[in-house]
Automatic annotation (TrEMBL):
Record organism: Plesiocystis pacifica SIR-1
PROSITE patterns the record matches: RADICAL_SAM (PS51918)
Keyword Metal-binding found: yes
Ion transport keyword on record: no
Top-level taxonomic group: Bacteria
Domain Radical SAM core, chain residue ranges per copy: 1-216
Designated name of the protein: Radical SAM
Gene3D superfamilies per the UniProt record, alphabetical: Aldolase class I
Cofactors demanded by this protein: [4Fe-4S] cluster
Amino acid sequence: MLRLTTDCNSGCHHCTVADVPADQTRAPREALAELVQARKQGSDELVFMRGEPTLRPDLPALAKAARKVGYRLIQIQTNGRRLCYAPYLDKLLAAGVDYFEVSLFGATAATNDAVSVEQGAFEQTLAGLRLLAERGVQSGGRVGTLVTFAVLRANLHELTAAAELVAELGLSRLQYNFTRPVRVDGAWRREVLARLDEAGPPLRAAMARARELGLWVSTEAVPLCQLDPADRGAAEQARDFAEVRVVDFHQRHESFAQHHRVARPLGPRCPECAVVDRCPTTWRAYQELFGTDELRPLAEPDADVPS
């Protein structure tokens, strides 16, 4: 996972890159050296991380170089806005990009654009997702798309509508991400955050609806005690990150698994839980801001979600 830039063409207040040292960009030669070195060390999947990598003029060239040195999968994390331009999307595909993780912040223009602080962003992202769905069909499934939906106070009422929108677009993969708190200029941006107990009911309803629609639906940073039993298997686990190498501007991790548990510690009562070994828990910063009362141990591996 390689971060190329902190620049972005949206201004989301919840942005989880906001506490990365700002206004940084990796020189093309340095980016190339990083991906070549990682390939030599055994990495065969490459993720260009947020900020917004599609703002980089050299992104297609870097993707092409990554393919040349042997990466079998190249993924871009993006808000999807520049993907609405078919020639640009096709240039990325021709260079070897074959997976896109596209952020969506609302199921309507009003909600999405208020979160992204950019009027017209929703229509651009939607147009990009439509093109990705078309290219996925045309490629026989070789072009993959994951829609990630940030779970925020402002969009809880649209979690189910997001699943319906993804299905309507002809896409099949959706992930609900419980947003990490960020601290900027010495202050936590608390006002944008949803609470776990507040988010739990609409999230469970949305995931049930997603399953009805035939979507592959998953979560990030949502404790298993907040999910229905049918959805707990789709939560990410610390072991999923054991072989992930992260090259950021302010830190590097040869294996992200250890940092993953530091970033998402167990609550005081979590060791009592029957599924503690596979629970992702939630962000350390969230626990420090709001406490751990919302992390409730499950008595049985298949126990019902607490009311």
